[in-house]
From TrEMBL:
Alphabetic keyword roster: Flavoprotein, FMN, Oxidoreductase
Lineage, broadest ranks: Bacteria, Pseudomonadati, Pseudomonadota, Alphaproteobacteria, Rhodobacterales
Every FMN hydroxy acid dehydrogenase domain range: 1-379
GO terms for MF: oxidoreductase activity
E.C. designation(s): 1.-.-.-
Cofactor(s) for this UniProt protein: FMN
Pfam families assigned to the protein according to its UniProt record, in alphabetical order: FMN_dh
PROSITE patterns in the cross-refs: FMN_HYDROXY_ACID_DH_1, FMN_HYDROXY_ACID_DH_2
Protein's organism: Litorisediminicola beolgyonensis
Name of the featured protein: Alpha-hydroxy acid oxidase
Family: Belongs to the FMN-dependent alpha-hydroxy acid dehydrogenase family.
Enzyme class: oxidoreductase
Cross-referenced CDD domains: alpha_hydroxyacid_oxid_FMN
Length: 379
């Protein structure tokens, strides 16, 4: 299928699946354990009904949104994704450039396959930085200093990875650190020559911000210890709040009490997220967790929502249920997998045109006016 014939994010996903070796596709497409959470994230969006309202002048639709003192052209940004160059070579920079061009936020993952400095430059003033707190304090401090020097003003600390998620597809595909070429991997490389040649040209993807530290790693446990810590606590968040003078956002909140505690601690926002269903299989889909969180926060701090966004209507659904802003992870990543930089643009175009069309259909020409009155059933 040609890129311009891709009608939906799912079309882009299927195109990406045909171009990328199985082990690399599954790395992004997969979820934790039974993948129940991954499936439920999108299903739960579909269950939220909006009642169309007609005879309103919708000749001009305004998707502009302000958050953290900055105006953006649309109410969604790119979620932080680690090691994305393994999915498609050059994916990180393609997406950062897309976000700068389309004037939406780009969240640079601390586990990205491109350095935070290069991503800050590509995203221009639209870059936010996502931090994983390391079990080594000096690693965390180093990242904070670099993020500040690179000009990031928004830092998003991820709370929902006390341990790496168990992803059955990656185990079945025998993904290992250090990377080993198994017969299955070799077969995937041969069957996908465009991907393989592009990867050869770009060089082996790595976790660029920690490249030196990880060179010494001989096991996945070593890598995990550098990247994340099971010891990230409320006290550590409090220290981080004192340490980081810019906007601080906590990513991975699902419980209203945790959301309120973030607000009390002086955080500027939260991301209601289940990591796109990659951490656990048993939790709630984010769109179901959102109403109780929005009620408990009652506007005190900003609410961003991610996990499962595949349609423009999902962004409107999230706003109707109390989110101020959204992030898309796989939706934009599938675009890059389907067609590099042009594919990323196509994914953005699909989501934003669907968003504009939905706002017209529900008779709400300004995104900022979307509210609970559009819901067919109140939560
Ligand atoms: C392959 C992959 C890698 C990810 N890496 C990170 C990461 O490094 N840091 C982080 O906070 N979240 C990470 N996430 C979670 C995303 O930021 C986001 O929460 C999730 O993708 C949203 O769900 P969606 O893909 O259904 O939109 C990752 C997600 C995927 C799919």
């Amino acid at each position: 299928m040609r890129l311009d014939r891709a009608a939906s994010i799912e079309d882009l996903r299927l195109r990406a699946r045909r171009r990328i070796p199985r082990f690399a596709f599954d790395l992004v497409d997969g979820g934790a354990e039974s993948e129940r959470n991954l499936r439920r994230n999108s299903e739960a969006f579909e269950e939220v009904q909006l009642t169309p309202r007609y005879m309103v002048d919708v000749s001009k639709i305004d998707t502009g949104t302000e958050i953290f003192g900055q105006s953006f052209a649309a109410p969604f940004g790119m979620a932080p994704i680690g090691m994305l160059n393994a999915f498609w070579p050059g994916a990180d920079l393609a997406l950062a450039r897309l976000c700068a061009a389309e004037d939406i936020p780009y969240v640079a993952s601390s586990a990205a396959s491109t350095t935070l400095e290069a991503l800050a430059e590509a995203a221009q003033s639209n870059g936010w930085f996502q931090l994983y707190v390391s079990s080594d304090e000096s690693v965390t401090e180093g990242l904070i200093l670099r993020a500040k020097a690179a000009g990031y003003e928004v830092m998003m600390v991820t709370a929902d990875v006390p341990a790496a998620g168990k992803r059955d597809r990656d185990i079945r595909n025998q993904l290992s650190v250090p990377f080993r070429i198994t017969p299955e991997v070799l077969a995937g490389l041969v069957a996908n020559p465009v991907w393989s040649l592009a990867t050869l040209r770009h060089g082996k993807p790595n976790i660029a911000n920690y490249a030196d530290l990880l060179q010494a790693a001989t096991s996945y446990a070593d890598v995990q210890k550098t990247l994340i810590t099971p010891g990230f606590t409320w006290e550590a968040l409090e220290r981080l709040r004192d340490r980081w003078k810019g906007k601080l956002v906590v990513k991975g909140i699902l419980h209203p009490d945790d959301a309120v505690r973030c607000a009390e601690m002086g955080c500027d926002g939260i991301v209601v997220s289940n990591h796109g269903g990659r951490q656990v299989a048993f939790g709630p889909p984010t769109i179901e967790a959102l109403p109780a969180i929005a009620k408990a926060l009652s506007g005190r701090i900003k609410i961003i929502l991610d996990s499962g966004i595949r349609r423009g209507a999902d962004i409107v659904r999230a706003k109707a249920l109390g989110a101020d802003f959204t992030l898309a992870g796989r939706a934009l990543a599938f675009g890059v997998g389907a067609g590099g930089e042009a594919g990323a643009r196509r994914a953005f175009e699909i989501l934003s045109l669907e968003l504009v069309r939905t706002l017209g259909q529900v008779g709400t020409p300004s995104f900022s006016e979307v509210g609970p009155s559009l819901l067919s059933r109140q939560p």
